[in-house]
Amino acid sequence: MHPKLTPKQKALAINLDRNIYGTFAEIGAGQETVRHFFRAGGASQTIAKAMSAYDKDFSDAIYGKEAKNRYVTQNRLRKMLRYEVSLIEERVSRETFPGRKFFSYANTVTTINFDKTMKGHGWVGLRFQCHEAEDYNEIVLHVKFNENDATLQQETLGSLGVNLIYGAFNYADNPRRMINSLLDDISKDNIEIDMIDFSGPAFSYVDNRLMSLQLVKNGMTDAVIFNSEGNNMLPADILYKKNIFAVRGSFRPVTLVNIDMFEKGLDLFKKDWGCSEEETEVLFEITIANLRAAGDIDERDFLDRVDILGKLGYTVIISNFSEYYRLIDYFAPYTNGKIGVAMGVNNMLDVFDENYYENLSGGILEAFGKFFRKGMRVYLYPYKDPETHQLLTANNLKVNDSLKELYKYFKHNKRIVDIQNHNPNYSEIYSRSILEKIASHNPTWEQEVPEGVADLIKERGMFGYKEELILKEFS
Prior knowledge:
Blueprint: H1 7-15, E1 20-27, H2 32-40, E2 47-51, H3 56-63, H4 74-91, E3 101-110, E4 121-128, E5 137-145, H5 150-170, H6 175-181, E6 191-199, H7 208-217, E7 223-226, E8 232-233, H8 235-239, E9 243-248, H9 256-273, E10 280-287, H10 288-291, H11 299-311, E11 315-319, H12 324-331, E12 339-344, H13 345-351, H14 363-371, E13 376-381, E14 383-384, E15 391-392, H15 404-412, E16 416-418, H16 431-439, H17 453-460, H18 467-474
Parallel strand pairs: 1-2, 1-3, 9-10, 9-12, 10-11, 12-13, 13-16
Antiparallel strand pairs: 3-4, 4-5, 5-6, 7-8, 7-11, 14-15
Helix pairs in contact: 1-2, 1-5, 2-5, 5-6, 12-14
Keywords: Receptor
Organism: Kaistella flava
Protein name: TonB-dependent receptor
């Protein structure tokens, strides 16, 4: 276990390395990162230039105008990084300073407003070389501030910037360690990192979905989102003012039941609220608790699940929300649109289990106030009990006696809606059974997953599938 260095120690270590040389461009919260390097001493060997293009007109004159005059964006940050590196390349001779690795650090942020109605957020990034002869790498991340004072937010931002620069030059071969080091000397309560992206030759092997997973796993954020192409998405961008329809599951693997639940539930949701496809964001959610169900998180298993969902064209959210109400609470700040959740009847029993909410001072009533908020509906998919073969629906679901009237209230007010047009042929398809069939080389599982999924599982050897064993078994 390596001792954690303070921001001052990290800044000094960078300053004392004669081969690290670059610029700092900070917009929106002062020059908080470069301040550490100036104060540490020996900065003349490291800092080519430090600037804060605070005035928008002046900033536009340097980096160009932004669409809709939005300055706190990923696009603005990347423009800053690349422009500043191009200036170093243009103005500093490699021949005069052989061995130097150039970098540009930038941030564009907005801190908490005077009325404290907007907490503040921003983009932070670094463009850097691991070797003078190599192309540049980039690390870009999005942060949300939780402190209620602009000065404290500025100090947190400064420490984060130092950690990023030090981590890039010392842990480029270990991105997980780099991510862990980002919050050195920073409380997790002070800041949230809800998106990170690695690119460049040093990170050619890095899967950014796994890096997103680290953010949730390490408690740096509650949820991350990536699209069907596997690209990390900023939650605020993808959810802003949208209607949201979510499906939670293990998706190990995706079954015909999952798709039937999603499609039939979404049809009802759009019909109930008059939502168009363009106005609605669909999310397939996997919780960290589900990924940890068998112990430590198996990253290969995680990628198998999300690769299949991506192949089917779905956007995935990985969350730290064991309870459903926390998922709805997470969506609420991003949108005032409608929210729908599709779930199986067996999951609804968990929702109405009071033991689920022992951590809440207001208990189940507090949870229901957040879960069954205005404009939110649950679409219930029937569940066939594998032992009794009884089909459980919203009408015959047996909740605790003390909650019966509450359940009737939500059902009467259409907060809980039955998916009645489900496909009865899928009622005895269970994910666990499919995994058992894969393990026992019983090919009937192939008929229980969506088209194309079986081919991908066999091609990639997912979920324990071993073609050579199957060939021997059935030859």
